Amino acid sequence: MASTPITDFYAGRNVFITGATGFVGVTIVEKLLRDVPNVGTLYLLMRAKKGKNIQERLEELKKNSVFDRFKELQLESRLSKIVPIEGDVGLENLGISPKDRQTLIENVNVVFHSAATLDFFQSLKETTNINLRGTRRVVELCQQLTKLDALVHVSSAYVNSYITEVEEKLYPSPDDPEKIIQLAETLNDDALKELEPKLLKDHPNTYTFTKHLAEHEVAKVASKFPCGIVRPSMITAAWKEPIPGWTISKNGPQGFFMGASKGILRRLPLDPTLIMDYIPIDVVVNGIIATGFYVNSLKVKNGNRPAELQIFHLTSSTYKPFRFEFLTDKINGYLHEYPLNSAVWYPNLRLVKSLFLFRLGAILFHFIPGFFLDLVTKLSGGRPILMRLHKNVWNSLNTLEKFIFTEWHFDSKRLLALSKTLDPVDRKKFIIDISELTWDEYFANTIRGVRQYLSKESPKNLEKARRKDKILLGLHVVLQLVFYYGIFKLIIGLTGVSSAKAALILPVFYYLFGLI
């Protein structure tokens, strides 16, 4: 494999990664091991979980589907470069033992901080501890590292979601972090909840608020060592690597494609004319790796003094904008091209422009079928989940409304300028310019990836699933005929009109149901 400036930079360098078991973290691990064969040791911050120690969790990590292609290339020997470090960003000193901390201090060259709590509904106490104080703890460790060449902090494009035209720069801190930390430590959740509106101000939730504060923790040390902040938007399935459509995340479109392919999710509150900012996971990981290289190269050019903090948007809205109107007539086609053998009903996803109409549709198309399907599941000895799932969605709508019906424009000129400075080979190996991305092909691959990696259905049973899909179509048509025949008879029974007049009224009901 030919060497390039980026692969040369990471060759022999040891990397410390937080959030290594998450969507972003595990993809960083795979990419470095696959495309930077001479990378040094990868120290992964991990915590024991569900009765499993970190060695057991490491073995679980190695079985992640992100390594499927890696194993096909027979690169498993490189997994020996991974060294788990027991710890947690939510604990003092990251929960790392003195011995392990000393190992990191003496050996780590690059730090990728991707650990965070992404829950929009989490309490301010928890998000402050993980997102704000967790970042501070990582920064404190970085200041002790004797060979640090770069720190890359994974933030979010939505840390500045209180404005809709966002630049690649550090915006003023929304509050004093010391005050927020003190409040989180001294007040209980109920008292904090009462204070939240006053503290958050224009921030929609505790996630964006604490992630915004966390950026300033990185900014404070940018003069001491090379620092970069990357701000991805909604991170979606892989565009090219490791496999087109690969994903382990149920957030964003992957989650609703998963529900729609089951035939469970039939309505989605979404305005197809709005730009939805999606960015593939492989582009995000390439951006993180490239940023680590770049901030160090600036230090070298600057007489071995760190340059100013570098901030990059890993986004699509101003460069390769996507609107669901591009796919309105194609989504269901993709769902039937890659159907599930485990589908409970014929997939038919429809986008609804208002929450009011969505709620009406949810009662008819989600709650009523969900009730009966849960009943059947319970009677057959299974665990009913549909009603709970639909209730959770219903209860979260008001909180998510801003993110569903707001169009943001995230400027990415600095990221594109970074791409142009890269070596031509690096530009192809670590793609951050999405000019060649085709949304139609991308979402077809995403739905295929959701089928394989989230719904756990093998490509081998695709033909069987397609046969079932045709059967479900027949049942769907029969049910619709029965339903509208019932409406037809109801019109006659309630109004006393003739069958001919009832037949003329029936299209009105068809149109009205079409709105929801």
Report on this model:
The radius of gyration is 25 Å and the shape is globular. It is 51% helix and 10% strand. It has two domains: 5-250 and 270-321 and 407-432, Rossmann fold, CATH 3.40.50; 324-403 and 458-515, no CATH class. The protein contains 19 helices and 13 strands. Helix 10 (253-262) packs across helix 17 (439-454), helix 13 runs antiparallel to helix 14 and helix 18 (462-495) packs across helix 19 (499-515). By secondary structure, the protein is an alpha/beta fold. Strand 4, helix 6 and strand 5 (150-154) form a beta-alpha-beta unit. The N and C termini lie far apart (55 Å).
Keywords:
alpha/beta, Rossmann fold, 2 domains, 19 helices, 13 strands
Q: Can you lay out the helices and strands and say which pair or pack?
A:
Layout: H1 5-10, E1 15-18, H2 23-35, E2 42-46, H3 54-62, H4 68-72, E3 82-86, H5 98-107, E4 110-113, H6 124-144, E5 150-154, E6 165-166, H7 177-186, H8 189-200, H9 206-219, E7 227-232, E8 234-236, H10 253-262, E9 267-269, E10 278-280, H11 281-301, E11 310-314, H12 331-337, E12 350-352, H13 355-379, H14 386-404, E13 409-410, H15 413-421, H16 424-429, H17 439-454, H18 462-495, H19 499-515
Parallel strand pairs: 1-2, 1-4, 2-3, 4-5, 5-7, 6-13, 7-11, 8-10, 9-12
Q: Span between N and C termini?
A: 55 Å
- Low-confidence parts lasting 5 or more residues at pLDDT below 50? none
Radius of gyration: 25 Å
Q: What is the level-2 CATH architecture name of the largest domain?
A: 3-Layer(aba) Sandwich
Q: Give the neighbour order of strands across the main sheet.
A: 3-2-1-4-5-7-11
How much helicity do the residues have? 40-55%
- Arithmetic mean of pLDDT: 92
Structural class designation? alpha/beta
CATH topology label of the largest domain: Rossmann fold
Query: What's the tally of helices?
Result: 19
Oligomeric composition of the shown chains: single chain
User: Could you tell me the strand content as a percent range?
Assistant: 5-15%
Overall shape: it is globular
What's the number of structural domains?
2
Number of strands: 13
CATH superfamily membership of the largest domain, which one? NAD(P)-binding Rossmann-like Domain
Largest sheet: 7 strands, parallel
The CATH class assignment of the largest domain is Alpha Beta
Family: Belongs to the fatty acyl-CoA reductase family.
GO molecular function: alcohol-forming long-chain fatty acyl-CoA reductase activity; alcohol-forming very long-chain fatty acyl-CoA reductase activity
Domain Fatty acyl-CoA reductase C-terminal: 365-457
Main location: membrane
